[in-house]
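This is your field. Pick holes in the following sequence-structure pair:
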Amino acid sequence: MSEERTVPVPDGLAGERVDVGIARLFGLSRTRAADLVMAGEVEVDGAMPARSTRLEPGAMLTVRIPQEAPPLEVRPSIVEGMGLVHQDDDIVVIDKPVGVAAHPSAGWSGPTVLGHLAGAGVSIVTSGDPERRGIVSRLDVGTSGLMVVARTERAYTVLKDAFRAREVSKTYHALCQGRPMPPQGTIDSPIGRSPNHHYKFAVLRDGKPSVTHYDVMEELPGAALCEVRLETGRTHQIRVHFSAMRHPLVGDPLYGSDPTLAARIGLERQWLHAMELSFVHPVTREQVTFTSRYPADLQHALDALREGA
């Protein structure tokens, strides 16, 4: 949304550059005024001017000023079901429930991992955007499981480099429709934002390199429980890769799953859980490994399938 104002150029601004005049008339910074001109948000007598255009007295000046989004902030709030798996002076490992984002973002007003940590009195002192401090990797809102957050600048730098170098082992369990063949394999297909839907991702020729390893652990009626290991960490990577194999995750209609199957076993989200996280501690340099258990909703759905639902 934007506010549009149209005013005649006063005599006192005659001869001034248009960006200078806008800044003085509307109380804006010179930089913001220039940005509005360059963005086509300014008209002088119905025509779009250059920044260097000189104003003439009596000319009609129209300016559209987009409303600035409020700054994002971490709001302390304890999140029910959030598990604190490990905490030391440099890192904290949490077991994130479904429905929680890693950090505040535009369009998200729900609970966040950083909000919970702030509410629990866990300090995060790192560089980066204030609303994302300490975040070295994320889990989707709809995915539960283990996440590590850096508490200090040293840990933040080392962990970011470790994730970038693919030195962090991330293991997920996923329940997919059908039975993948072969039962053990690697999906090496680039992923990018879907050209048809901005909120989805897809396997694209010009996407970013993405590698997923999977191993079928258990065959069930109409589905298979898989252990999944990621080499890369693209958004929605597991969901996109399994969908591309024509074995979408159970409970994931966004990527092609059968909603009747999810309804039959009482599942209201994709069956996907971050089970294990293993890495070299950024300060002690010891190998550390953390594990999780299935949340109640995923366990219930799995039991229902095992019982022939």
In short: The longest helix spans residues 153-164.
